[in-house]
Amino acid sequence: MFGAPVLSAALFDSDVCYLSYADRAAGVSWDHAKANFEDEEGYTDGYEQTFPSELPALFPQSSGEALRAIWDREEEVFADDRMYDLLSSLGLPMVYGEDSFPEGYTVL
User: Fold this and answer.
1) What is the domain extent for residue 81?
2) Which domain of life is it from (predicted)?
């Protein structure tokens, strides 16, 4: 829409964490999902279910090993925790709804 690269993080029912990235100018896009349960069929169709290996290159200040460790955690009960830890490690704010924008952010 704006011609800028976009990284999107989303949740499904606190069970699946989705990360998607698109940069039209570079011709790059990817979609990954991490489910917190074994029978994820239907919830992750169309998504890679592996660690998004492209992610550390987008945020060189972040540790690729730390991001992978967060992604691979097996004891995670809620996908919300995984998403929060991933985004925090990247230095990105969490936006929970239209009334929870961090200082300096606005609804477009």
Assistant:
1) 6-90
2) Bacteria
